[in-house]
Amino acid sequence: MHNGIFVTATDTEVGKTYVSCKIAEAIKGLNINAGVFKPVSTGDRNDAKELIKSSQIKESAEKVTPVFFKNPMSPYGASLIEGNSCDLKKIDSHFKYFLDKYKFTIVEGVGGILVPIKKNFFVNDLIKKFNLPVIVVARHNLGTINHTLLTIEHLKKSNQKVLGIILNRNKNKEDVSCKTNAMLIKKITKLNILSLGYNEIIDLRKNKWIIG
Hints:
The strands form three sheets. A six-stranded parallel β-sheet has the order 2-5-1-8-9-10, with helices on both faces. A two-stranded parallel sheet has the order 3-4. A two-stranded antiparallel sheet has the order 6-7. The chain contains eight helices and ten strands. The longest helix is centred in the N-terminal third of the chain and has 14 residues, at 16-29. The protein has a single domain (4-210), classed as P-loop containing nucleotide triphosphate hydrolases (Rossmann fold). The chain is α/β, with parallel strands linked by helices and 212 residues long. A hairpin with a 2-residue loop joins strand 6 and strand 7 (121-122).
């Protein structure tokens, strides 16, 4: 088993937090001491609160998300407006805290992999810095093949270890692409893939690839 995973996505509002929470609940069900960590957040710390609730750990939202910007936008954009640069040293120290305290840590990113955290420093660079294998969260609907393949291509060019892809929640019955998206993405990428329905439990025994 890895000592953690990095959960990223093809876009914002795709369901990184939802999937991270579902993974945390599943790991908790295996009696594994798992922590949750969202290094940077913008707009609010609700994601951190949801992660804490799902993992049932006794940590504050400020501990789980050490860097926070009030404006709901990219961290770099928010930092320019608010006059505060993203403190990478603070992120590093909190990341080490979770790695040392918990057997397994679920790290959730912010937005997609090319969201800027600082000037010339993106989410993808944060993944490199943490040196954790990656899970990509994507939508079920029309357009997800393009977004998912672009994300996977960039991660692989960056020599990131991608564990698999989770297509998240809503399957629009009127969207015929939902019938083949998972199959096509798996066929093209040759990666593990899981279609996760609404409020569905993740079976880690059937999807061991998620935690290694």
